[in-house]
Amino acid sequence: QAFFCLLFCIPWGSSCPPSCQCTEQAGAKTVLCSSQHLEEIPKDIPRDVVFLKLDANSITRIPSNAFRHLSHLEEIDLSRNAIEKIDRAAFKGLAAGLRSLDLSSNRIRSIPKEALLALNAKLRLANNPWHCECALQEMLREARPDLDSVQDITCHTAPREEYVGKPLLQVLDAGANFCSVHQRSMDVAVFVTMFGWFAMLVVYVVCYVRHNREDSCRHRDYRRALPSAQARAE
Fold first, then answer.
1. Which of helix, strand or coil describes residue 105?
2. Architecture of domain 21-178 in CATH?
3. Are 178 and 159 in contact (CB under 8 A)?
4. Strand partners, 123
């Protein structure tokens, strides 16, 4: 009975992930998992955590709903990992309270705009190999991060060589619009597709007309041959 009492009476939020340290000060719980060689986000983070430090690990991906049940979170430090992929619903459930999200010094090339739409947190995005394209431009426009966050983004790769190595803000201020290039490419693709369908329609019509004409000629020759055949029969 004592065992079952301990099992069910201790709140789940009081546990601490292995290799991490959990501290509490002024009612705010902090979970420290820095430099623990973690390859993924721990599953058993206390629900009442306020400050979560996962920096200097080997995390490569932030999956959907990774922090969904951590409604008290105000700061997340994911810097100095090996993050390459961030799922669309990675930060679902963190809309209101989150004040700081540090994603600096990772391997992030792009982030789905849906991942950051509801966040009002201050983003730290420096030292990532960003690919400056329409997806990144749309993400920044939709997520509306603060100016400091955008200033930290440098184009590691880009559609045009002249943009590589330059801050994204400088490129955009110079008049670049990656989405207009994307739109032109889409327009060209649509035009080529429509032209292909039109060409197939023309070929079909030509073949159809030619086939009908040949059938008409055969039918006309057949009718011309009928009287002579009847005459020979008489």
1. coil
2. Alpha-Beta Horseshoe (3.80)
3. yes
4. 101
| Most distant pair of Cα atoms in the chain: their distance | 121
Burial class (CB in 10 A: 0-12, 13-18, 19+), 199: exposed
Is residue 183 within a helix (H) or strand (E), and if so which, with residue range? helix 178-233
Residue 229 has pLDDT above 70, yes or no: no
Q: Which amino acid appears at position 234 of this protein?
A: E
- Is 122:99 a contact under the CB 8 Å cutoff? yes
- The pair of structure tokens assigned to 148 is 């400091």
Q: Where do we find the tokens 């705009």? A: 113
The pTM of the full predicted model, rounded to 2 decimals, is 0.71
Q: 176 near 163, Cβ under 8 Å?
A: yes
In total, the chain counts a number of residues equal to: 234
What are 51-101's pLDDT values in tens digits?
999 999 999 999 999 999 999 999 999 999 999 999 999 999 997 789 999
